[in-house]
Each structure stands twice: as C-alpha cells, then as structure tokens.
Amino acid sequence: MDYFDEKINRRNTYSLKWNVEEDELPMWVADMDFKAAPEILEALKKKVDQGIFGYSVVPDEWYEAYQYWWEKRHHFVIKKDWLIFCIGVVPAISSTIRKLTTPNEKVVLLTPVYNIFFNSIINNGCQVVECPLQYKENEYSIDFTALENCLKDPQVRLLILCNPHNPIGKIWSKEELEKIGKICEKYHILVLSDEIHCDIIEKGQDYVPFASINEWCRENSIMYCSPSKAFNLAGLQTAAVVVPNDFLRHKIWRALNTDEIAEPNSFAISAVIAAYKQSEKWLNSFNAYIDQNREIVQKYIFEEIPIIKVILSKATYLIWIDCKKVCDNSEILADFIRRETGLYLCAGSEYGKAGQGFLRMNVACSKNTLLEGLNRLKKGIEEFRRQDEK
Q1: Closest to 249 (Cα-Cα) out of 108, 88, 82
Q2: pLDDT 10s digits, 94-105
Q3: Is the model's pTM score more than 0.90?
C-alpha cells in the first residue's frame, strides 16, 4: 500500500486537475493521483529511450491484450474483429451519435450520469431525454416504467448506458441489464454502453458487460472501454470500441476514421499491452486501497458530518454525496466550499436535473490527502450552515 500513500506534487505540470490556486485541493475530475503501474512505466520508458516518436500501427498484441483481459477478468470472449482502436471513449461516443442519428432525434440518459454525455448529444444536434433513476433509502435503482415511456418515443434513437454508473458507483446486475435489453429490443433502440469504470470495483463484486447478456444485447449494442480510468492513462488517449454486429461495426469504423480518431500516438499501444498483460497485481492493490478510502469517507461523514449522506458505492473511485439537507442547489454549495476552504468538488447538477443537491468527490488519492479533503468538507458544510442561519 506504500505505493499509493506517496504524495506526488502535480502542481505546475500542466495537469488539468491540479491547475488550481496554491491553497486549493482539487478532488473533482476523474483523474487519480497515483503513479501508473511499474510495468506500464517501464514500457513507456523503453519508448522514450528509443527516442523516436513516429506514426504507430495497431498490432496484433493490442487486440490480444483486450481479448486476454476481458476473458480472464470478466469472463467475456471478444473476437478480434469486434475491436476498433480509438483515441478515447468520449470522442468515440460523439462520432457514433453523429453517424447513427439525424438532427433533432433523441438520446436517453439514466440520470444523474456522466456530464459529458450531455455535450456529446447536444453538440451533435440531438436532444437529451433524462430518465431519472429512483433514489430511495440511500440507494439508486432504475424506474423501468419511466424508462419504457422514454424509449417508446419514435424520435428516440439511442440509449447511453453507463456500466458501472458514474457518478453513483452502481454496478448494474445481470437482471437489470436484461430488463434494459428487453425494453430496447421492443422499441428498436441501440445501446451505447460506456464501460470505462468496469475494472474499479469493490472486492467481491462482479461487473457484467452489457453485450454478454444475450444475443440481442450483443448484436444491438456498442461497448466503449479503455484502461485509462483503472490504470490512470487518460492523457495517453487510448481506448477501444467493441462492435460485434458486422453492419454496425462498418458504420462505426467509418465514423471513427472520418473523424480522424482511429490512429494511436506513440505511447497508446504499449501502455495498453503493459496494463492488461502485466499489471493485474497492481490493479488488485489499487482496488483494495480504494475500498479502504471509500470506508474512510463513509465513516468520517457518518461521524463528523451526519447532516450529509454518502451513497453506497460498489464501483469507481468517485463518491456521490447527498447534501440536500444542507442546500438543494449544488452550484451554490460547491462554489461556497471551494471559496471558503479551497476544496474543489463537482456540483451534482452537472450530471442532470436528478443530481441537484449532490456533490461528487474523487477519492483516488493518498489517505492523507483524503483526510485533508474531508476536513475541508466538514469546515465548508459547517460554515455554510452558519451563514445560512444568519
């Protein structure tokens, strides 16, 4: 665990996350403060030592790495032909929406959900349809009646699924995914499944790929995946699109190439191979550390800030916090806490109307940093309540 306790100074390194004032503590964007696995660092060092950074191809080893990982780790067999390289999950989702919709068609989201999905939909001329998740007794579930009402609209073309779900940390069960598939089959809806967080799960939990559910789900879905979240490689711009259906795969291949997002940079291939073929031990240790951090957050908030609540999370390194008893306006609360304490969290309203009154905290950091963040959160909540009472 010492590997993850090291505090690394990322200020003045062109880091998006740490591009903040000197006294601020950023715990917002999904970017961890840990070094990548030693095996990945060694692979990248070899590329640097070679000293040449020309154009790269996608070799057989890249396909084999994805196939190996998903079969070993997730018991899902991916055929080589299904895989397409791309520079990122979000660019690939945006390309897919452009290719498979016409202007003003609709895309359904189960909200609160990853905020950039909204951008991908709106920026490509489509309309967002929010289907709010049910929130009851500190847990989320899908309102399948509401989902069917959304999907039966003839203007709806796509459903974007987040599996596991960001920001609530929910791992969708096989039964839930089957129900989603049945409704989508009934109304001829294509499922775009973002599964980028699938390797960050609590010990004893199982993630199920949507495409593994049954033949219809496999043939009528597109899966987006990458080692970037679990292995901290977001800046290397490397991901994959998994498309089992031949007809859809040709369309997506054309879309990615038309948008020029299907060619790897000099480090993208080596990092993936080292992650999936050599770094499983590192990932297991990382997940154990994140499990501990989740427990620290839950215990601290329960004992020190009981007016807010942590949503029970089984996946991701993101914590979803219910602050509605303090303030039902996420932007006002997040801005106040940042201004008064320097703690930079995400306002829940970024994730759709259903996120109003919540905050999102990134806990992929050392325990010392985490405790500092929690102390600042406590101070911010207490000060906000004092101001509110005046």
Answers
A1: 82
A2: 999 999 999 999
A3: yes
